[in-house]
Design a protein that fits this description.
Layout: H1 7-28, H2 30-33, H3 44-55, H4 58-61, H5 63-79, H6 85-102, H7 107-131, H8 139-171
Length: 174
């Protein structure tokens, strides 16, 4: 008889895979993703958290704690500025979860909520970086050259990964 791997273990392993895939995709495709004047930032870490909020049991998975932990690690590893994503990740996960619960569960609802989540994530990251003097671009340049391309890239990732991740969570639901 085969033993099922607990969804909590799958969640943690998937979270760290998504975390490292963010950096790997950015490194491998840097010539395309960060071609002046546009910037496309992969947000697979956030996608994994948001889809866990959609399909998993957030209390069993301790999503808020994991969002803060992975936000702290994200800050240390990718940005070097502690405190930005440690607060933004849990906030975005919470907002997405609350909004998704108000909508009928479907791909289009998930697509819309993920769109809003990535918008909030990238915008709050920009605002925080502008506040501390790390971002020197105008709001209109940010919207056109960073937010729009980032949304396009991440919505393509969501379209590709939504159903496999949903299936993963459904097959391990107890």
């Amino acid at each position: 008889m085969k033993r099922k791997v607990p969804i909590a273990i799958i969640f943690v392993v998937g979270q760290f895979l998504a975390f490292f895939m963010d950096g790997s995709i950015s490194q491998i495709l840097s010539g395309t993703l960060f071609k002046y004047p546009n910037t496309m930032v992969p947000c697979l870490t956030m996608m994994w958290l948001i889809l866990a909020a959609f399909f998993g049991n957030s209390k069993k998975l301790h999503l808020s704690a994991w969002a803060a932990i992975i936000g702290f690690i994200f800050d240390m590893y990718y940005t070097g500025i502690l405190g930005v994503y440690v607060f933004i990740f849990p906030l975005v996960v919470y907002l997405c979860q609350v909004i998704y619960q108000q909508l009928p569960p479907s791909f289009m609802s998930g697509f819309l909520v993920y769109f809003l989540g990535i918008t909030v994530l990238v915008t709050l990251g920009f605002v925080a970086n502008a506040f501390i003097g790390q971002a020197s671009t105008s709001v209109s340049q940010f919207l056109v050259n960073t937010l729009a391309p980032t949304l396009a890239l991440n919505l393509v990732f969501l379209a590709i990964l939504y159903f496999p991740i949903e299936t993963l969570y459904r097959t391990h639901r107890r």
